[in-house]
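User: Second chain of the day. Same drill as before.
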Amino acid sequence: MTGWMGIRVDPAHNRYRWYQVVIQPTLWGTWECWAFWGRIGQSPRGGKLLAHGLFDDVLHAAQRQRQRKERKGYSGSPSFSCLQTRQQGHPE
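Assistant: Same format as last time:
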């Protein structure tokens, strides 16, 4: 499993949020990309399946979602690895 976690803090608007994009293999040999979000310090408020299928397609969907969130002001957390490029059909 590999993923990215972004954090957005805006005290003026009482925004303390996190967003996570996760890529993981399924039991059937395909891949899934999930997104989870919530307020910092609380359990996830939601989650959704962004993509499933071949690794390249799922990785592309995850990178697009990460770029969307970074444009909205989320910055990457150093405690989570960045989305990796493909190596032998699997993430590093």
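Confidence is low (pLDDT under 50) at residues 78-89.

User: Great, on to the next one.
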